[in-house]
Amino acid sequence: MRNNPDFGAIETHLLWDPAEKLADAEERTCRFAVAVHDPLVESLVTEAWKRLERFDINVLSTFSACLADQHLYYSPLMGKIADIVNRKLDSIQDLRSLSVLMISISSLISQHFQEKLVKKTELLFDTIDSSQVTTARKIVQFLGNVKCSHFPLLERCDKVFLSNVNHLDLDSIRNILAAYRFLQFYSFAFILMAKKRLTEMIPLFNHPANFVKLFVTLGPLAGPQEKKQLESTMLLMSEELTSQQALEVVVAMEEMESRNSHLIKKIASVLHKNLENYTPTELLEITQTLIFLHFPSKEVFMKLRELLFSYLKVSVQVKEIVSLSCALSMLPSPHTDEAVMSRIEALLPQCDLSNLNDFATSVLRWIHYDHMYLSKFTGKQLKLLQKLDHYSCQRLQQSNNFHLLWEELKYSKGDWFHQLVVEETIAAFQCLMDEINYTNVARIGFFISRTNYLSTSLLDRIAAVVVQQIEKIHPFSILGIILPFSILNYDPPQKDEFFGLCMQCLHSHLGTLDPHTLVFLGFSLATLEYFPEDLLKAIFNIQFLASLDSQLEILTSSLSSRVQLRLMELNRAVCLECPEFQIPWFHDRFCQQQYNKDIGSMNGAQQQIYKLLAEILGGPNFVKASVLSPYYYAVEFECILNKRKKPLPYGTHNVTLGKPARMFWESNIQIVGSSLPPGAERIAFEFLDSKAFCRNIPHLKGKSAMKKRHLEILGYRVIQIPHFEWNSMALSTKDARMDYLRQHIFGEGTS
Cα–Cα–Cα angle for 481, 484, 485, nearest 5°? Predict the structure, then answer.
């Protein structure tokens, strides 16, 4: 049992002790958990204020940590400490003490002061011993507190962690992984190390408090065997969990994509018993997670609904009401409560862009459900959606600071944002274009990629920043920079210099970048017809592919599938466009598996085109539907013309328009023309819907342009039919559409 502190002795120290003793007295009160409003603490704070300037850096850091322990982050005294650190920063040489101070004052510092602290930390980093894990951990914590993803500093801290694996306990690993995720810093080496270290800890913990921490930290990184072991142990102690532990576990199970129905049922039972103890934000987490885990209990969801409604009636905080509305919108109902809509409407003037986006996503869900249940409230919801649009545009038009605008937009997602507000958003960024620099250029690049909106002025600005400030840009930022150019199929005026500098920046980090990031980079550059040999050699070798396989085990299933698809597409692009690199094609089995389970159906426009092609060419035997080309491109329709432009028939085959069969060539890498009669040509038809084009102009996006390029290399003549032409007034009749197809197949003037 803890002994009571000798408060009389501590108070006596205040009368005569020097500054160091005063700080020591404050530290002792922290250890004894004395309340912040205790007269002793107030006396210590008063005396410290008088002597603060006499504290050396070590004493000042100890004292600031004590204030932080008392939650006095925003106190005038902490402000005074921040001022002293600012004035004396040049003379500080002890990074250990400075790292403590940085955390303590992080809530009070300006952007300029933050930059000074980061620069000073970089200068002092080489002065610390490589075993100082605690100092490195505090630096990462500071960067998280101020939301600063300073990659060079994070890399140096990461090296300290990797070289001191045995000094990292469960809490340290947990906090580092959380900070890395928040700062979007991806260290595959640290994740592998953490996975190995945490797996070794599984037999060591048999108490729920510690095992829950291990489950939550290791679960999302674990392979199948480790997941099974974690879930089995958690099942045994599930009934001992507190409400907060059960919440942590169920959220981790969502990240793990768990399908252990017994464990899901046990944890849901604990959640159900404690639903009234959770905050609105936690109720949103529970709703999202149980839906993701396909938990079938109507009883739990009905109680959730009742609780969410009851909270909504009394809540006054915007953030809470956003969470409650979002959770309610996930629970299908025959009708939407008008009181909920009225509550949202009343809040709109107080909302930032992030709140407005979340509300709109909820309203869109309600509209969807009301269509399902034929409800009468859709008109009111559409009016609310219009008001959300109005307030969003108004807020965007008033934006005059890039950083503040970005803070509101960075988490925006959903159809509503892209459909209704994207033009105003792009216009706002164009007005603030001069504020784009090396610190935010990757963020704006990622954002533009999500909008599918081609703004040449913004992309030209991104390219100009890269050309002018490449020495300040970290290699981890290059993917975000290149992505919008790749997706939107745009070459900046200084294309060669821009891509050359991007590759120059990447060169020194080809061996340290995350494997999946390197794959995405390679594919993005290939889309733009840029094939750096050193990047391709870094990807297409046995060691890298083995590392990628290891990483795929710990990625979510959706991300893992996307990475594998991009690797295949990159492999295909290199084989077709750079045969001189002699990189083998090794995706036959992958492609066959993909296409065997991906037998789609024709939409209305495709069925129209198929029937008209059969009529124009002389019958169904003259056109093939749903062909797989060499290297496994899906070709919607195909025909062959001889050297006199006459259609050649295929063998007898039946096509069901709803679900066409896949047709494979004899060889998966055979050039198309090699199997044709002399002078004949094979024509591929592709209907391009709105997804193939930029949102604002009929400009073909990168993947569709690359497909056309590759089919032409394979020997096809490619006829792409844009949706806006096929569905135009000019082609509103059958005769007009037949003439359109004839002209594309046989050339101008053909009747």
Answer: 90
